[in-house]
Automatic annotation (TrEMBL):
Protein name as it appears in the record: Phosphogluconate dehydratase
Lineage: Bacteria, Pseudomonadati, Pseudomonadota, Alphaproteobacteria, Parvularculales
Cofactor: [4Fe-4S] cluster
Superkingdom classification of source: Bacteria
Enzyme class: lyase
Gene that this polypeptide is encoded by: edd
Function, in words: Catalyzes the dehydration of 6-phospho-D-gluconate to 2-dehydro-3-deoxy-6-phospho-D-gluconate.
Domain Dihydroxy-acid/6-phosphogluconate dehydratase C-terminal residues, every copy: 408-601
Molecular function GO terms recorded: 4 iron, 4 sulfur cluster binding; metal ion binding; phosphogluconate dehydratase activity
Length: 614
C-alpha cells in the first residue's frame, strides 16, 4: 500500500485539530448512550407493549425476551419518485431475512422525499434545501423510541441521504447502514437528451418532442442515471463504509439487488452491541471517513451540492470542514471518471466499466484515500475495492477489475481524465463560491465580461427568448440564498446559457443559489457567500460591472465599474411573493435560522458545538 499523500495527511490533521472540541463532545455523548446497554431493557413494560402491539406473536415474544437485535427501518419510500419506489418492497424482505437469524425489524418511521427533478423551476424547489433538515429531524423522531439495537436507512436522492445521515449521527452509538435502490436501466443517451433540451430552449422543437425525450430518459423505477447529487450520495456512502460493498449502482428489480438488501439486513444485525462484532456509526464516521468522501467527490466529478451537504453531515458528527479543505484536496486528487454531465456515459456504463470498486482501489494504491478506517464490514476501506456478484445464487465479492472496461468512462490514476479534481473554490471581492469544472472545457474556465443582473430565473429566460442576450456577459442572479428564498437550484438556466455559449459568446453564471448536482458545461460560480440578503457583495453588483470568473486561479472579482462595493447601497428585491404558496410560508423560521452555505446551510446548532464554543 502506498504512503499516504502528504497533502491528504496534512488536511486530515488540520480537520482533526479544528474538530477536536466538537468531536470529543460528540463521542462523549455517543459513549454515554452506548454504556447504557440496549435501550429496550430500560423501557417499561407498558412502553414495550406499545412498541410491540402491532407485531405478530413470534415478534412479540422475541421483543419481550430481548435476546436478539431489533432493527429500525427508516424509509423514504414513496411511489412518485422513481428512485424510491423500489424501497416499498424492502421492509418485508428485511423482516423475513432477519427472522431467519433470530432478529426482528420494525418500520420506525418514514421521512419525506421530494424530487428536485419534479420541482425544478417551480415554487416547491424553495423547500428543497430545507427538506434535508426536516428529514434529519424526522429520522431522529423515528429512532427516539429507544427500542432499537441498530438501524437501516432506506433512501437515495439529493437531500434524503444527507438528512438521513444527519439524523443517524445523533444515534451514532447504534450500527446504522444505508440501503439504496440503485439506478434505473439506461434510456436514451445523455447526448441525445441534452440535444433535445437545447433545441427546445432555442424554440426549434415543441413540448411534445421535449416530453418524449425526457420520458425516454427517465423511464422506469430506479435512480436517474446521470451523475448528480443522488448518485454522488451513493458514492459517498461507499467511500465512508456505510454500505455493504458495491451497493451503489446495482439496478433495482434484479436478483443481485435483492441479495444485497438481505445482506445489508444481516450485516446490520450482526454488528449490534448484542454480538461480538459491534460497529457503531460513530466509529465509522470520523475525520478520515469524511476526507475520503471529499476525495471521492473530486475523483468522480461529484455534485456541487455536497460542498454544502457534506459540511452539514460532518458537523452532525462533530467534525468541522470548510471549502478550503475541499480546494486543497482537489489540487492533489485526479479526476478518474467521465459520467454525464462530465461526459456522455451514465452510471450504468460507469459501473460496467469497473465502477466504484475500481476507483477505490486506484485511490488506495495511490495513497489518496485513508485505507485504515472502520467500515460496516470491519476495518479497512479495501473491503470496498471489490464488486458484488452471485455465485451459485449466493452473494459474493471479487476484486474490482484490474483494468478499466472503457477508458472513455473510467481511467486509472496513472492516466487520469484530469490531474486535479472536478470541484474548485473561488475567492475575491464578491465573496467565496464553488464551481464544478469537470464538465467545463478548459478554454471556457476563465470569463471576463460585463454583468447583467437578473431578478429571477424567469427574468433571464424572458430576456433570452426576446433575443436580448446575444453578447458576452456574466449572468448575476442574487437573492437566491438560503436566508432569502431557501437556496433553490437554478437548473433551468443551463440550456439558454448553453445555447449562447455554443453561439460563441463568453458567458458565465454567478449566484448565491444552487445549481443542479448535474451542473453542466457553462462556468457557474454558485453558493456565493455571504449571500445577498446577508450583506454579501453579490447583491451590490450593477449592470455593466466587469466581472472576472477565473476557475483556474480560483478568483471571482469585480474588475471595473464596481468601485468600492462595501460603500454601495443594496436594494433588495421584494421577496414576499417568493415566500408563500406551496408551503413556503411554513419555512419562515428556517430561513431565519439558517447558516451560510460554507457552514452547511444548517437550520439548527448542535449541543456539543454550543458547548465547544462557550
Amino acid at each position: 500500500m502506498a504512503k499516504l499523500n502528504d497533502v491528504l495527511a496534512r488536511v486530515t490533521d488540520r480537520v482533526r485539530e479544528k474538530s477536536r472540541k466538537t468531536r470529543e463532545a460528540y463521542l462523549k455523548q455517543m459513549r454515554a448512550a452506548a454504556s447504557e446497554g440496549p435501550h429496550r431493557s430500560h423501557v417499561s413494560c407498558g412502553n414495550l407493549a406499545h412498541a410491540a402491539a402491532a407485531c405478530g406473536a413470534d415478534e412479540k415474544r422475541a421483543l419481550a425476551k430481548g435476546g436478539g437485535p431489533n432493527i429500525a427501518i427508516v424509509t423514504a419510500y414513496n411511489d412518485m419518485l422513481s428512485a424510491h419506489q423500489p424501497l416499498g418492497a424492502y421492509p418485508d424482505i428485511i423482516k423475513e431475512t432477519l427472522g431467519g437469524v433470530g432478529a426482528t425489524a420494525q418500520i420506525a418511521g418514514g421521512v419525506p422525499a421530494m424530487c428536485d427533478g419534479v420541482t425544478q423551476g417551480q415554487p416547491g424547489m424553495d423547500l428543497s434545501l430545507f427538506s434535508r433538515d426536516v428529514i434529519a429531524m424526522a429520522a431522529a423522531v423515528s429512532l427516539s423510541h429507544n427500542v432499537f439495537d441498530g438501524a437501516m436507512m432506506l433512501g437515495v436522492c439529493d437531500k434524503i441521504v444527507p438528512g438521513l445521515f444527519i439524523g443517524a449521527a445523533r444515534f451514532g452509538h447504534l450500527p446504522i447502514l444505508f440501503l439504496p435502490a440503485g439506478p434505473m436501466t439506461s434510456g436514451i443517451s445523455n447526448d441525445e437528451k441534452a440535444r433535445v433540451r437545447q433545441l427546445y430552449a432555442e424554440g426549434k422543437v415543441g413540448r411534445d418532442e421535449l416530453l418524449k425525450a425526457e420520458s425516454e430518459s427517465y423511464h422506469s423505477p430506479g435512480t436517474c442515471t446521470f451523475y448528480g447529487t443522488a448518485n454522488s450520495n451513493q458514492m459517498m456512502m461507499e467511500m465512508m463504509g456505510l454500505h455493504i460493498p458495491g451497493s451503489a449502482f446495482v439496478n433495482p428489480g434484479t436478483p443481485l439487488r435483492e441479495a444485497m438488501v438481505k445482506e445489508t439486513a444481516r450485516r446490520t444485525a450482526a454488528t449490534t452491541a448484542l454480538g461480538e462484532d459491534y460497529i457503531p456509526f460513530c466509529d465509522i464516521i470520523d475525520e478520515r471517513a469524511i476526507i475520503n468522501a471529499v476525495i471521492g467527490l473530486h475523483a468522480t466529478g461529484g455534485s456541487t451540492n455536497h460542498t454544502i451537504h457534506l459540511i452539514a453531515m460532518a458537523r452532525a458528527a462533530g467534525i468541522v470542514i470548510d471549502w478550503d479543505d475541499f480546494s486543497e484536496l482537489s489540487g492533489v486528487t485526479p479526476l478518474l471518471s467521465r459520467i454525464y454531465p462530465n461526459g456522455s456515459a451514465d452510471v450504468n456504463h460507469f459501473h460496467a466499466a469497473g465502477g466504484l470498486g475500481f476507483i477505490i482501489r486506484e485511490l488506495i494504491e495511490a495513497g489518496l484515500a485513508h485505507e485504515d478506517v472502520m467500515t460496516a464490514m470491519g476495518e479497512g476501506l479495501s473491503h470496498y475495492a471489490s464488486e458484488p456478484h452471485l455465485e451459485g445464487g449466493k452473494l459474493s465479492w471479487r476484486a474490482a477489475p484490474a483494468q478499466s472496461g472503457d477508458e472513455e468512462v473510467l481511467r486509472p490514476v496513472s492516466d487520469p481524465v484530469s490531474k486535479t479534481g472536478g470541484l474548485a473554490v473561488l475567492d475575491g471581492d464578491m465573496g467565496r463560491a464553488v464551481i464544478k469544472v469537470s464538465a467545463v472545457k478548459p478554454e471556457r474556465r476563465v470569463v471576463e465580461a460585463p454583468a447583467i443582473v437578473f431578478h429571477s430565473q424567469q427574468d433571464l429566460m424572458d430576456r433570452f427568448k426576446a433575443g436580448e442576450l446575444n453578447r458576452d456577459f456574466v449572468a448575476v442572479v442574487p437573492f437566491q440564498g438560503p436566508k432569502a428564498v431557501g437556496m433553490p437550484e437554478l437548473h433551468r438556466l443551463t440550456p439558454p446559457l448553453g445555447v449562447l455559449q455554443d453561439k460563441g459568446f463568453k458567458v458565465a453564471l454567478v449566484t448565491d443559489g444552487r445549481m443542479s448536482g448535474a451542473s453542466g458545461k457553462v462556468p457557474a460560480a454558485i453558493h456565493v457567500t455571504p449571500e445577498a440578503l446577508d450583506g454579501g457583495a453579490i447583491g451590490k453588483i450593477r449592470d455593466g460591472d466587469v466581472i472576472l470568473l477565473d476557475a483556474e486561479a480560483g478568483r471571482l472579482e469585480v474588475k471595473t465599474g464596481g468601485g468600492k462595493l462595501a460603500e454601495r447601497e443594496m436594494t433588495a428585491p421584494e421577496l414576499a411573493a417568493e415566500r408563500w404558496g406551496a408551503g413556503r410560508e411554513l419555512f419562515a423560521g428556517m430561513r431565519g435560522l439558517v447558516s451560510g452555505a460554507e457552514q452547511g446551510a444548517m437550520t439548527f446548532q448542535l449541543a456539543e458545538q454550543v458547548d465547544a464554543d462557550d
